[in-house]
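Tokenise the fold.
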Amino acid sequence: MEPSPEQSPHHAYPDHWEADVVLRDGGTARIRPITTDDAERLVSFYEQVSDESKYYRFFAPYPRLSDRDVHRFTHHDYVDRVGLAVTIGGEFIGTVRYDRIDDTGRPASAPADEAEVAFLVQDAHQGRGVASALLEHIAAVARERGIRRFAAEVLPANNKMIKVFRDGGYTQRRSFEDGSVHLTLDLEPTEKSLAVQRGREQRAEARSVQRLLAPGSVAVIGTGRTPGGVGRTVLRNLLAAGYTGRTYAVNRAFDEGLATLDGVPAHRSLGEIDEQVDLAVIAVPAHRVPEAVADCGEHGVQGLVVLSAGYAERGAEGRELQRELVRQARSYGMRIIGPNAFGIINTAETVRLNASLAPESPARGRIGLFTQSGAIGIALLSGLHRRGAGLSSFISAGNRADVSGNDFLQYSFEDPDTDVALLYLESLGNPRKFTRLARRTAAVKPVVVVKGARHSGTNPPGHAVPVSRIPDTTVSALMRQAGVIRVDTVTEMVDAGLLLAGQPLPAGPRVAILGNSESLGLLTYDACLAEGLRPRPPIDLTTAASPQDFRDALAEALADGTCDAVIVTAIPWVGENGEAETGDGQVLAEALTRAVAGGSAKPVAVVHVEIGGLAEALAAASSTAAPRPRTVTPAAPPRAATTTAGPPAARGAATAPAAPATPEAATAPEAATAPAAPATPEAATAPEAATSREATLRAGRIPAYPAAERAVRALAEAVKYAQWRRQAAVPGKIPEFLDDTIDEAGAAALIEAQLATAPDPRGRPLSHDEARALLGHYGIDVRPALPAPDPESAVAAAARLGYPVALKTTAPHLRHRADLGGVRLDVADEEALRRAYGELTDLLGKPAELLPVVQAMAPRGVDTVVRASIDAAAGAILSFGLAGAPSELLGDTAHRLVPATDRDAAELIRSIRAAPVLFGWRGSAPVDTAALEELLLRLSRLVDDHPEVVSVALEPVVVAPQGLTVLGASVRLAPPPARSDVGPRRLPNY
């Protein structure tokens, strides 16, 4: 909202302070600066505040605001005097104001860094988290304006306000003076204040999705008068699913005498409905949607599912319509699924909601599904239904202009009815937040993701979100770091989801294979090796094996301590008449189910070929659709495989081992089953309303697959996820010794000086000496390279450095290109140096073009490359690979998000395919990986401490058996990109 011309002209209206927020109950509100145009709104707001709240605000009866008060509270300079308001429907529901003061409490200007702060929230909206949200935003504004402390006077009886300050997580001091509580808050964010903020964000956003999925009443706006059409289809599906709430059909074209439609009340507008409507499904043409949204907002609807198309998928004009739709809905406190959505489903017995275009509601189950595509949503629902899998919830978000995959993760994290979250994503609006939420959720339940539009470099039509420029391989690596199970196809998503929802997590990669076909067993064995598993030789039960033989063999394998998982392969067995019998799937399914029920916390999967009814029988006997008994067990994790009390941990997970010394060690079997510590602070507070998971898992929810490769791939993903859970249970650390060898202030001063002299506001690259100086502040020593513009200079440089030396070009097109002859190594003396210099210039060009340098030789070792860069969407990324062809030609590079821990650094160098070269491949000497890990940690710390360092490349880094040498470094500085994952809570605006 722009101010009038009367607003103080020397401080522009700070529109970047405007924000949409989700309140504690899941509703939305808008926070914005108060302007001179808000006088009437302020007076109206104050009239609706109780006398008690007014007394708490002013410490005396204060029935009305004087004209002077109104002027004071609406005129701000946005520096020393700032007021923010929370609005719903354009009206104030809460305000906050700060006034800068000096040491004596009198009004002041900078450099005074303290301000007096006061809040007022309408009584009808107290308890919704309005004041808490205002505190976050006014604190951020104050820090921006150079204010470091807030002072507040609160009456002792005003417990609600005292609690707001106390629970904010800021460092504070309290005293009792002259009958009031004097509070002082240090505004510097703390680990506690950040945890409080993110905890509130999680609960609010989860609640906002829960309100959409579990409404007490639904109105379908745009219900057709005749069968067919989108609105009438949704109404039919609601009724067919047995929705437990109230349902209404709304269409302004209904005849006035029409009282019911398909047995539900019919109305021409929401205003005719006397009762509360919680959710509206809008199925009208796009040009009529604003009218429908306004009608919903005026009558207190809590959320919208907009099925209507014609928005951002149609281009720039539609994108603006979509933005206006979001602004309009949020102004009334409503969240939106869509537009261009397929709908939502909640199979909970107390809800039974199918507000979608899916003709058949899925069975009740333990899988939550989110998709950004209606077509993919249809395919996934169909595939899960065929496999006998049930769902807990389903959201098809269409253009996902508001509710996104991040919101779904917030909801899934605490949903007691969801054990596995499946997401089909085509865009990531806030990748930093996604990885943070995914890591927290994956610590307690699996998250499986398919990412569409991976290679297009653009977002799909309708997705108005920032485009990340990082390669898809990097995105995949970052997801893996966050514990996300990244698969390539929706078929693989279903395969993995079925196994994860119905089976315990494996304790290691050892796989037993048994079945009645030697050939199918060998195919399974080969597939296991290809996926990095450790299969035992297949057990051939022969084609004469009976269901009882299968049961006995499976029970024996489950009891065998040398395997962590079992794959059963089955083909039709041959009867006495020599013909294949394909109709005994039910018998085999019962035998396998009984064997699993015998008791072992190991996953079991079945690979079958043309056995009629086997998959259906397994689904019927052990479907994830079956409701599970659930008890409240505060210390037991939702997915635990043991009955030992403890925090959220992997099913059957071992205590996290130390970082493996070699790549091969990373696949060692894990035998322990002790519960582990929480992976994150948030994970420790994850909802614990979960089950007696052991009994239900051992009851035999066995997934069946028509091909060995599919079953093995799903199992391999479960193995990698279980290993991540074990390792994430004990978070990595940043070694304390780094603090003693890092000069953060010196680096900051150097960066500030370099940016101050940069001719380009977008930043500048540093020279070799400047880069050496900056990196030196963080204990990264770059070997000097002396310029050699002519042979005499080269000889002088070599004499200074000492022979042997290297002569190399630094021209951008020749840098690090030894294959083109731009590098001469082990130059032993002056004669050899002059000869090498002549050969170099004769072959490649003049010295002015080549920019040759002389450098002392480094000890022999493995050439590697270490990089760090900042992506505006994903954040700071640390990368590692071997120099030359492995990383440049084959793309064999590993990535981790910054800040990296000791565990991240150890995993980073072990996760490239060429890692064996570092560990003594083919009899070579192992290199000093500990020194390499330390270098990675130092570079991570540099870019984390100084976001102005937007790009660093250390190449080559020669890692020897003892120590390493950084031979080349390039650094670029620039003003840091704006971050969407820090600061006060706010909904994104695309």
Residues 191-213 form the longest helix (23 residues). The two ends are 18 Å apart (CA to CA).
